Amino acid sequence: MNQYLTIAPQNYTWEQNIKKSRFILNVARITSEEDARLxxxxxxxxxYKANHNxxxxxxxxxxxxxxxxxxxxxxxxxxxxxxxxxxxxHLHDVVAIVTRYFxxxxxxxxxxxxxxxxxxxxxxxxxxxxxxxxxLKVTITAPYRHSETLNYWLETNxxxxxxxxxxxxVHSVVAVSEDDLSQFKTTLTNHFSGSLTFMVGExxxxxxxxx
Length: 211
Hints:
With 211 residues, the chain is an alpha+beta fold. The protein folds into two domains: 5-127, 2-Layer Sandwich (Ribosomal Protein S5, domain 2), CATH 3.30.230; 131-210, Alpha-Beta Plaits. The chain contains five helices and ten strands, in the order βββαββαβαβαββαβ. Strand 4 (52-59) and strand 5 form a beta hairpin. The chain starts with a strand and ends with a strand.
């Protein structure tokens, strides 16, 4: 997978009113179809009085699993438009459910498509996205005299500090891509005249907000 985008929170709720009908989006990260099924069941139970609980989800490194349901709305007016929003935003491992409480005014096929796709799109925009990256966990050990300068260098070069520990030295943990590791170590070694040491640890997932 070249890029892994998902929603920023683990789950999120957003709603709007359209011609007296309530449209409520619930969206969550998932790692399996069982996760999706349990989330859908939970929302169905919470909104058992709703007229419709429409869902769509995408799962897998290559989105090989894609499911949707119109849940009683006219075919093609609800689940498919929601799935298309997930596809257009290039999201992975996400389930979306739009609950509708009918307000008495019929929207027609076009209106339903706009309502379900719009609720999904606007709700996802409100939730925000992150890019999930694979990174190496690197611990940089530095003398106290270099701590502030090192922090400034890391910040200005977009290496956020994950955690910091203090003893006789300062130990700063950052996430570095495998491709950048050699140059990263060389640059810092030269910049701080060999006073830093590096310990390369486990591979972690690192999430960066996407505007």
